[in-house]
Amino acid sequence: MLNILLVEDNARLRQALRQGLEATGAVRVAQDCESGEAALAYCLTTPPQAILFDVQLAGAMSGIDAAVAIRREYPRMPVVFYSIQDDDNYYRTFRRSGILSHYAYVRKSNYLLPQMIVPLLQDAVAGRSFIDPEIESRVQEVRHKDSHAPMALLEPNEQEVARMLARGMTNEQIAAEMGFRDKRTISRTNGQIYAAWGLDETNTDEKVARTRAALIVREGRLISWDDAGVARVMNERGEWVRWEGA
């Protein structure tokens, strides 16, 4: 029998899911809660065998955010996400989370019955993964959209800093232009830009990341560099191809 954590912010649904899952005889709901913050706190003291997450939750953390935080402490913790929300930001968060295995992500409307959820939990525990084809399609759609609109991944102040980076301005000059006394504020903002555009995932120093960020701004599309320094962009079929401008 699997001991799981159930994370759902609708109290009635949470209770119904608890009862339905336990009625299968295959699952014991060791704990339930309504927020990602509560889920993280519980797992840090009493890690379950698997977690069933609604994606949209009470509190600041989504189910995906919480799963990423929990997996920092417990790598590959099995998780099953379900959601009725069709929101680009959730698909974007999932895509950027780097979750590769021990998971399932399904639409709540398609997989809400306990007898359908239990096999997903069991597969996640076994190391397998599954993503609802509808969700996979939307994840790829958002990925393609983002590849052609990198500024959409940044908050307004980050967009402003990115444009100044592309004009060759130093951190001191950007800080002065934006009215900041401390240039370290710009360094932190640069870090957020690099993370949003995947420029912090390779063994590159800040100068290289800065140059690449400037190129992305000027091209108006995401560019990805491999370890050999080869630059690629996404084509209309969603394939990463060598960037001819490199």
Question: Quick recap of the structure?
Answer:
The chain has helices at residues 11-23, 36-45, 63-73, 88-97, 108-111, 114-125, 133-147, 156-166, 171-178, 184-196, 206-219; strands at residues 2-7, 27-33, 50-54, 79-83, 103-107, 129-131, 224-225, 231-234, 240-242. By secondary structure, it is α/β, with parallel strands linked by helices. The mean pLDDT is 90.
What would you note in describing this structure?
The strands form two sheets. A six-stranded parallel β-sheet has the order 2-1-3-4-5-6, sandwiched between helices. Helix 2 runs parallel beside helix 3 (63-73), helix 4 (88-97) crosses helix 7 (133-147) and helix 8 packs across helix 10 (184-196). The protein contains eleven helices and nine strands. It is α/β, with parallel strands linked by helices. The chain has two domains: 2-144, Rossmann fold (3-Layer(aba) Sandwich); 148-242, Winged helix-like DNA-binding domain superfamily/Winged helix DNA-binding domain (Arc Repressor Mutant, subunit A). The N and C termini lie far apart (55 Å). The longest helix is centred in the middle third of the chain and has 15 residues, at 133-147.
